[in-house]
Design brief:
This protein has about 300 residues and is of the alpha+beta class. Helix content is about 45%, strand content about 10%. Strands 1, 4, 5, 6, 7, 8 and 9 form a 7-stranded mixed beta sheet that branches. The chain has a two-stranded antiparallel ribbon with strand order 2-3. Strand 7 and strand 8 form a beta hairpin.
Length: about 300
């Protein structure tokens, strides 16, 4: 969901997490600065004016996301800005050793290296991350997380700048039409106010939220995000402590699950990336049911 200021909604979401679940306060305090810095970058890039890629509706109709095979070098300066802002925060949050920090900084200071990592992430070229992690002496999963964190605000600003041209795209797949990534969370749309009589009602349309670029796209409400299964007998929705607006949508056919938030019950609306930090108990419950997440994140891999 789009907001006027990502930073304000991040602050609000983190504060709500601290108040509702005191056990998450330490986690919110540790990772909060990272969420805030990413949001500030996104807001700043949007205000400055992000470059927009061309949308090939023919390729989209064939199921090819916008950024696949796209030259990402026009966004290199934005990526460098994001690296300068986020890398110091990441180094502190992840407690990186100095012998890792120096070569990592030097590598990501080079434009070609940054663009190369971004291209590899979009194309799913995991071999590139494997080779780079060996070269830098850093864990591959850590390098991937750092790269995704740096690229995310740049891609989010790009998505926001694409505006109506993107919202009119028809897309029925469970992966993002912009960058091809899978969703980290889904939501049911807020109640709607009609222009004629100002009555509030409706809402409840299901949207998926991209784990990388933050794009939200409409998806069938009664289908599994991962495999498309729409059989009621093999799908399940569960929640904890009677908090029904935050839940897990599970598919026992493929063994995957995706978090879901019902925005009709939320005031104010949460930031869809930050809110996941406060839903780890749902991830743990899903793991106990032998389910695995549609998208692996830092939060749903917590043991």
């Amino acid at each position: 969901m789009k907001t006027a200021s990502a930073q304000k909604i991040v602050d609000s979401t983190l504060e709500t997490i601290r108040k509702r679940v005191p056990a998450y306060e330490e986690l919110a305090d540790k990772f909060g600065p990272l969420f805030v810095e990413k949001a500030k970058l996104r807001d700043g890039l949007i205000a400055h004016g992000s470059k927009v890629p061309a949308i090939d509706k023919g390729r989209l109709a064939q199921g090819v996301p916008v950024l696949v095979d796209e030259d990402l070098s026009p966004w290199a300066e934005d990526m460098k800005m994001a690296t300068l802002s986020l890398l110091p925060v990441l180094e502190e949050v992840l407690s990186l050793d100095e012998e890792v920090v120096k070569p990592l900084r030097e590598h990501m200071a080079e434009t070609d290296n940054l663009v190369g990592l971004a291209q590899a992430r979009i194309e799913g070229n995991w071999k590139h991350f494997e080779n780079t992690s060996v070269e830098l002496g850093i864990d591959q999963t850590t390098l991937l997380y750092i790269s995704e964190t740096v690229f995310a605000p740049v891609l989010c600003a790009m998505v926001d700048s694409m505006g109506e041209s993107l919202s009119n795209v028809g897309w029925e797949h469970g992966h993002c039409p912009v960058c091809g990534s899978s969703p980290s969370i889904s939501y049911l749309s807020p109640k709607e106010v009609t222009d004629l009589d100002q009555l509030v009602g409706g809402g409840g349309k299901k949207f998926l939220h991209c784990s990388l670029c933050g794009h939200d796209w409409r998806f069938k409400r009664n289908a599994c995000v991962s495999c498309g299964n729409d059989e009621n007998e093999s799908r399940e929705v569960f929640y904890m402590d009677d908090v029904k607006f935050e839940r897990v949508e599970a598919c026992h056919k493929c063994g995957k699950y995706c978090l879901n938030v019902d925005m009709r019950e939320c005031e104010p609306y949460p930031h869809l990336d930050a809110v996941q930090l406060g839903l780890i108990h749902l991830d743990i419950y899903a793991h106990k049911k032998d389910l695995s997440p549609v998208t692996l994140t830092l939060w749903n891999s917590v043991e």
